[in-house]
Design a protein that fits this description.
The structure holds 2 protein chains of 2 kinds. By secondary structure, chain A is mainly β. Chain A has 4 helices and 20 strands. The chains are: A mainly beta, B mainly beta.
Chain lengths: 257, 14
């Protein structure tokens, strides 16, 4: 028997909106530590890793480890039927091939049950080591989303360059070129407006903007985004899920042939 | 020309 109950159901709605465009079908892994997912996009150059820890749920029961294969577009369709203030319960009985989503209105006067068939998805799982990064940028997530959106109107790749001056986002295309430089700015009243750059080494990497724009779908989840970079390694773009865990996106850099 | 290599070249398949 697996059951989780999340009072702030809107978090789960936002999580699905954050991943459904990047990945079609994915396995949710349920264990005593929490509700997690790791999945790659169809070209296998981008990966999303989700972790929602069990202690973050109002109620969490997982009798034995369970993998639930779901079509994320269908799951998102069902979660769209939940109100932003609804309590969301997900449950699956052992040995059944369906999962139930239950939505309770705050005043408990409306209870909805949505049942979805599970799928068998064989996806390879990657071991991602916790690494030290040459540069880590923490900045307002809305700012990062705005930069990715603006630069994608200029070109299809972004060069992200971290130096002691700050972080520079550059793009070029048929109509011209653009450079956006963000400097370290820790002296702001609200911490979520700060831009903090930890740089061990200057690092410059090139990425496809369409993936970066897909990652920024997670912006509603967190005020800040963390971008971790090391030369010739995939970038990690991380959004915290308030008090529960995180969504981490990994993207392979574009390497000069 | 720039290429992106699949992530399994960077991370080990478990």
């Amino acid at each position: 028997m697996f059951e989780l109950r999340l009072v702030q159901g809107s978090l789960l709605k936002k999580v699905l909106e954050s991943i459904k465009d990047l990945v079609n079908d994915a396995n949710f892994d349920c264990s005593s530590t929490g509700f997690s997912l790791q999945a790659m996009d169809s070209s296998h150059v981008a990966l999303v890793a989700l972790l929602l820890r069990s202690e973050g749920f109002e109620h969490y029961r997982c009798d034995r480890n369970l993998t639930m294969g779901m079509n994320l577009a269908n799951m998102a369709k069902m979660l769209k039927c939940a109100g932003n203030d609804d309590i969301i319960t997900i449950k699956a009985d052992d040995g059944t091939d369906t999962v139930t989503f239950m939505f309770e209105s705050p005043s408990q006067d409306k209870i909805s049950d949505f049942e979805m068939k599970l799928m068998d998805i064989d996806s390879e799982h990657l071991g991602i080591p916790e690494a030290e990064y040459e540069a880590i940028i923490r900045m307002p997530s809305a700012e990062f989303a705005r930069i990715c959106r603006d630069l994608s109107s200029i070109g299809d790749t972004v060069v992200i360059s971290v130096t002691k001056e700050g972080v520079r986002f550059s793009a070029r295309g048929d109509i011209g070129a653009a450079n956006i430089v963000c400097r370290q700015n820790a002296t702001v009243d609200k911490p979520e407006d700060a831009t903090i750059i930890e740089m061990q080494e200057p690092v410059t990497l090139t990425f496809a903007l369409r993936y970066m724009n897909s990652f920024t779908k997670a912006t509603p989840l967190a005020e800040q985004v963390t971008i971790s970079m090391s030369s010739d390694l995939p970038v990690v773009v991380e959004y915290k899920v308030a008090g529960m865990g995180y969504i981490r996106y990994y993207l392979a850099p574009k390497i000069e042939e | 020309k720039r290429t992106q290599f699949p992530l399994k070249l960077y991370f080990v398949v478990t």
